[in-house]
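Quick one: examine this chain and its backbone structure tokens and tell me how the chain folds. Here goes:
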Amino acid sequence: MQRVLKLILVSALLPSLLFGAWAQTGASISATQLPSGGKVVGGQATLQSIGNTLNVNQTTARGVVEWNTFNVGSQANVNFNQPSANAVTLNRVMDMNASQILGRISATGQVFISNPNGVIFGTTSQVDVGGLVSTTKGISNADFMSGKTTFEGNGQAGSVINQGSLQAALGGYIALLAPQVRNEGIIVAREGTVALAAGDKTTLEFSGSKLVSVIIDRPIIDALVENKQLIRAEGGFVVMSARSANGLMNSVIKQTGTIEAPSLVQREGRILLEGGEQGIVSAGGVLNVSGVQA
């Protein structure tokens, strides 16, 4: 039986579009570059570098690591060995430049990367984790360790850009949070959630290791979310949301790629493109929420 499932678009059209600048990547990095200057400041974990591989061995449910830089070269690997799928590691980056992820990141559980100057996943990047939050916004160690998941910015523009491959475990999530978010690669979260959200304060709500809600609590000037390639969440939820604080340059959602959330047996897929009361939603490309059930 063919079923057409839920597709939601929320928008208000305005006469002009202006786009914010994307984060600068800074100097190029070597093929074997690994994150540097790591210091465990929350929970219990050890950091072990062997050649072009960095292992973060975490034994507590939550851990915080502060890094001078968090760059991963095209031939480098970063492995987060965590005690369970519910475990989370917050990586706080102190660099003045955007983080460049060109190699591989893997994790047993969930990985948060927070760099106020931006995060760029290059074309050669491969991320395979239980769940991923990549953001320009921050969260205090105390709030994170207590289980809170509200991320706040400082009102400045910043970008999270994916040009590579980001994949969550079954039922997991990929969340990209920044004033400007762009997907030019592949994002996959089967039976899970993919969230691209632009604002200055965002709250993520979880049920166990599942991301169930994304709320933009505070808008930001020139909010922008764009998908130019592929987002796929079979039997899951895809949300693109932006909130602008500027009455002249409003939030913008641009969809020119492919978003797929086809249904699975006993499970519906949903796509939400949400630009706020005065936002602009430009929905082209392919939006697929159909599915076949026996």
User: Anything to note?
Assistant: The first helix runs from residue 141 to 145. The mean pLDDT is 86. Residues 167 and 269 are 18 Å apart (CA to CA). The longest strand covers residues 165-177.
